[in-house]
Description:
Blueprint: E1 19-21, E2 26-29, E3 34-39, E4 42-48, E5 54-56
Amino acid sequence: MIYWGAKYLRCPICGGKATGKVGIDQFYCWDCCVEYRINKEGVQIYEVAEDGSLVAFDPQNEFLL
Ligand SMILES: [Zn+2]
C-alpha cells in the first residue's frame, strides 16, 4: 500500500511509521530495513547491503506492493 500526501512518511511496504528521513526525499524504514525515495515518478525502494550500499529493490522477487 502506497501512501501519498500528508502520510507519505509511512513505509510504502509495510505501511508502518517506523521511518526516518535520511535525505530530501529519502526515507528509511526500520521495520523493513529498506530505504525509499519518493518523487513525482513514484516510489523507488532500495535494500541496504551489509556494506552500506544501496541495491535496487525488486518487489517481484520478494512480495507484491
Ligand atoms: Zn516498512
